[in-house]
């Protein structure tokens, strides 16, 4: 969760930044060191300005991308979802949604997420990643808080998605296998319909996940 978040904010990051930050810092450092080495080598054959420019072209894009990725966060305060990507933060009030969709990417590594809009902004929240032998799902606290936020509104698709999340919570609580979990069934639904690699589930398909 970002430093300085108000008390009670619930993180919605599928993969916590603490797990990937060390690798991203190493990547940024490697890019800078590589840029310096290349600049030194080029300096033997060209002017200092050209050497610095070449080094910067090699180092800056990768290092900057890694540092901006480290800033990515998704969190919930009350019914408002905040998604920070790089230097920009978008906020959507889940109780005032005008659109709510389940987005599925069915591939070797499959992803299930929700895309929510309130008319002013649109945010995407990854909920689960699956491979053939397992996966990673949003933690119970995040699922519960997101379900409550979506249930606070009156949009039928949002309420249906909240029901799917509650079903996922129940499946996790009883230790259900993958095929009994609504989020994994979303991947199976997309595959069986032949809508790959990415699709948006229909309202009928979403309702079927909660059954």
TrEMBL record:
UniProt keywords, alphabetically: Membrane, Transmembrane, Transmembrane helix
Keyword Transmembrane: yes
Transmembrane segments: 27-46, 52-70
Organism: Rhodococcus maanshanensis
Protein known as: PH domain-containing protein
